[in-house]
Each structure stands twice: as structure tokens, then as C-alpha cells.
Amino acid sequence: MLHFEVTVGGSDLDAKAHAERGHYTRSAILPGCPSHALFTSALPRPFRRPTLLVVGCGDVGMRVLPLLRGRWRLLALTSTPDRLPELRAAGAVPVLGNLDDPRSLMRLGHLADAVLHLAPPPGQGAHDPRTAALVAALARGGRARCLVYGSTSGVYGDAGGGAIRRDPCGGAGDRPRTPPRGC
Fold it and tell me: Any residues with CB less than 8 A from the CB of 154 and at least 6 apart, and which?
């Protein structure tokens, strides 16, 4: 069974507003994920750490990697072979795959105990096939027990520089979104 937690980007007030409406659960980094205690102490120290797959190593992902290094064995999904040295230097083992090509994600479900999903949805459309492909790959493997989705610009969509309308049942653009309860 895959445990889902959702985090929202923006200020604490945005997260509080989402939580009050029951749309999302604000969480700290990876609560509810596999505990280090679940891993046997008979193994050498590097092997006792759980494995975390970071999907979306843009600005936020690259800032998270140094914060988690040492506590997690870090894997980083990338679709760009040129980024392999950068990800290794940040302390992650790069994994080649593309969220727009579900076949390239087949092995992901067997690699990690937890997943930090920071990749944006496609720029157009009302659905997010990237996240759907990731979740399907993780479910097939059965190892991942925790998925944290960190939403940044995808929370309200791209308003093209205009004001963001905070309508809980609508968005500020044609971006994939999960409709809140009651909409």
C-alpha cells in the first residue's frame, strides 16, 4: 500500500488555508515514511539508511539534496544525461527516466522506500499524466511506502503575471489540478 501525503508551496498561510478546506495535508519533510528503526542494525551504516527517490531536481530538489544527505540514500530521477555529474556531486545516485515516457519508469517501483515528487505537471491540460505514470510505476514495484508531492508553481497555475484568484473550485490557468472536495 502506498501512503500519500501532499505538501503545498507558498507561504504558511496558503498551506493553512488549503488544510482548513480539507484539500491538502501540510507535512514536514517525509513524516510517516519508513522509520530508520525498520532497518536492521546488523548491516553496515550506509546500508541502514532508507532510500529516497527525488523526482524533479530543479531549484527546490537541488536545495533538498544536501539537507537529506547522510540520513537517506538519495536517488535522483533525471531525463537529461548531461545532469548526471551535477546530481552525483550533490550526493545523489542519478537514475535516467522521463515522466513523459512511462516505459522509462518501469524499474522505479523497486528502487526506493520513499519518493519526494517535485516535478511540475505539463504546461497544458486539466490532468497530470506525469504524476499518474510515476504513481503507476511505484505501485507496480511495491517497495515505496511513502510519496510526498511538493507543489510549487502548479498550485494555482500560471496567471501570466496577473493576480491569482483564490477560488477553491477553479484555477488560475489551464494546469492540471486536483479539484477540492465539494467542487
Answer: 120, 121, 175, 176, 177
